[in-house]
Amino acid sequence: MSKSRFRPFAGRRWLGWLLPLALASLAALALYAVHLDRVIRAKFEGQRWALPARVFARPLELYAGAPLGVARVVEALERLGYQRGEPVGAGSYTVRGPRLVVYTRGFQFWDGAEPPRKVQIRFDGGQIASLSSADGDLPLLRLDPEFIGGFYPASNEDRLLVRLAEVPPLLVQALLALEDRDFYRHHGVSPRAIMRALWADVRAGGVVQGGSTLTQQLVKNYFLTADRTLWRKLTEAIMAVLLETHYTKDDILESYLNEVFLGQVGSRAVHGVAQGAMLYFGRPLGELDTGQLALLAGMVQAPSYYNPRRYPERALARRNLALRVLGEQGVLTPEQVAAEQAKPLRVPERSSLSMARYPAFLDLVRRQLQRDYPEDVLRNDGLRIFATMDPAVQAAAEAAVGEQGEALARQRKLPDLQMAAVAADVATGEVLALVGDRDVRFDGYNRALDARRQIGSLAKPATYLAALSEPARFNLATPLDDLRMSVRLPTGQSWQPRNAGDDYAGRIPLLRGLAESRNSATVALGLQVGLPNVLKTLRALGVTRDLPEVPAVMLGAVELTPFEVTRMYLTLAAGGFRLHLRAIHAVTDKDGKPLASYPLSVEQKLDPAAVFLVNTALQEVVRNGTARGLGRVLPGLNVAGKTGTTNDSRDSWFAGFTGNTVAAVWVGMDDNRETGLYGASGAMRIWADLIGRLPAVPLTLAEPPGIHWVQAPDGPWLPAAQCPGGFGLPVLDGGVPPGAVSCDGAALPPPPDRSDDSWRWLRRLF
Description:
Elements: H1 2-44, E1 53-56, E2 61-62, H2 70-79, E3 83-84, E4 92-96, E5 99-103, E6 107-109, E7 112-114, E8 118-124, E9 127-133, E10 136-137, E11 141-142, E12 147-151, E13 157-159, H3 169-179, H4 191-204, H5 214-223, H6 230-246, H7 249-259, E14 261-265, E15 268-271, H8 273-281, H9 290-299, H10 312-328, H11 334-341, H12 359-369, H13 375-380, E16 384-387, H14 391-412, E17 418-425, E18 431-435, H15 447-450, E19 453-454, H16 460-468, E20 479-482, E21 487-488, E22 494-495, E23 506-509, H17 510-515, H18 519-529, H19 531-541, E24 559-560, H20 562-573, E25 577-579, E26 584-588, E27 594-597, E28 602-604, H21 608-624, H22 628-633, E29 640-645, E30 651-657, E31 661-668, H23 683-692, E32 707-711, E33 718-719, E34 727-732, E35 741-742, H24 757-765
Parallel strand pairs: 1-16, 3-4, 13-15
Antiparallel strand pairs: 1-12, 2-11, 4-5, 5-8, 6-7, 8-9, 9-10, 14-15, 16-26, 17-18, 17-31, 19-24, 20-23, 21-22, 25-28, 26-27, 29-30, 30-31, 32-34, 32-35, 33-34
Helix pairs in contact: 1-6, 3-9, 3-10, 5-6, 5-7, 9-10, 10-11, 14-23, 16-18, 16-19, 16-21
């Protein structure tokens, strides 16, 4: 009896304690919800994602007269992921004899938009004859540029943003059918989906289906961790409801489509359906067909498990399930479902988003960008960078380095033999290709930009250019003494330059001294010109490093990188005008608004007439000098170039140019060991292979004012169509050799008075 009397009292005490606790919990939960609401709105209404900077290659420009055949254009289209077949939509093409019909993709360039259109390209042999579209003839067509890499956020996430209106409706329908059928009916959390998932799990005896809505999945991926705790699930549900309170279903769906994880490229996570399309199919999202869209939607549940490259059977089954569900919902007809399920996956073997496709070139782009943009902007603001790399030239450089480099390493039994190559456009200074390692995909030490090596005979043109800039004293026929010599240095020591093979020719013309790369003749000439003038000429050619003030610099005792050597020879190729080597055309923001451009920069640094004489001599290097083997490999191109070899064959170099491309190649060992390779037997082989793969333009030197073609009594002779017999010699005003006769019969200026040459020589000795 007493017990029954006290039970109501104990219950009231328990209720009195529980009610405040519940109210306090509800208040705490409300405060927590307010905090979560602030978190959602602050992050969701700002910049939602850190977007990588995306780098694009130089677009292929097509126009009547362009030296491009059908095969080269098709190669470019294949590299861009165009599909061969009837061109009924963007990203497709077909070949019809000497004609190519292409349905191009639209693209927003830095200087305007290129619309998608169907174009007919007619070829005549190895060049384009005409371009036309439905609107008539086209003067110029730019294909969409190849994506070549990016600079990624600290989170190492890669994504390409897409608006909901740009997403194919079939993908959205498949995604909702598989992941959240009630998406447009629930308010962030779906009790029906939870109960359906629980029932499926009970029947299966394990976890086989989730009950999370797309909104909950977005909250988990965007705001939370993947921890499977009750608190995390409660937080997820609250945030999902709050998210749906503030934003429309379309806003949430669009964010989900850009956030969803779809795979991995090395250490880089790929997010969003747009980048997922590029990862698995190498094509923009809008170009995927029904089966590909179904597979992409099906992979959302478990991208690694359904990876079509690693587990094609799983991926095929998942795609077919997605197609069947679309059929059940009436989106596809039974015939369409059967037809699509009968098709293979059609997934390329390699991803277009593979890691470090062009690591050395991207390194150059980054270095040039860092002058204008801080690192966090490069990694987070989604800049679009239009680079100068020409995919065809880069492919040629990589093939030449890979194939010839492997052959050289095998022949010389030097497995660690290394090399680097740089190629640029003669007319603009745009860097077209850059390779920094024999393994062209190696993302590390970039020898093209960082390997400072002695350049050997590549420095010799500076001495000859300094001399020929004084036409009253020197011309291509000026006799030089190619003899053993000893040079007294300011330190009191003696320096004895030696010719290769200890071979000396005695009295030779200046032209032969450069063509045959004779050390003693070069030093003899340099001592007459004066070392300060040689150093000044090297700087005018583009050498910015400190130069040692010693006579050995005339023979290449100066350390430069392949990139710096390319800059030197670009100045020669441009006729004495300095063009800055640049790797970037322009930069825009993520929406295509122009931010910066990098226009052509030209400065006259040297006398074009003197440069013309040196370039004529560099052509003789290839015809009859140390690079004469190149003339046989590349006939008709009239290449100008120079071999370079350092002491004990530690470095092999070749630098030269055609009518449209200048390139430099280095071969050697990182530890500076001997290689046994000369310039002609090592680097020149790679250079020749590179140029031989390109539609190179023959080099025709433009004659500046002040050049006369003569026939001198003692030679030397060069091919000259304007001279009797087809041979002559170019000279400058005031630099006509004694006894020379003009090729065109015009009067020549009198030869300079050299009566005091011997006295000048004696004065220089003391």
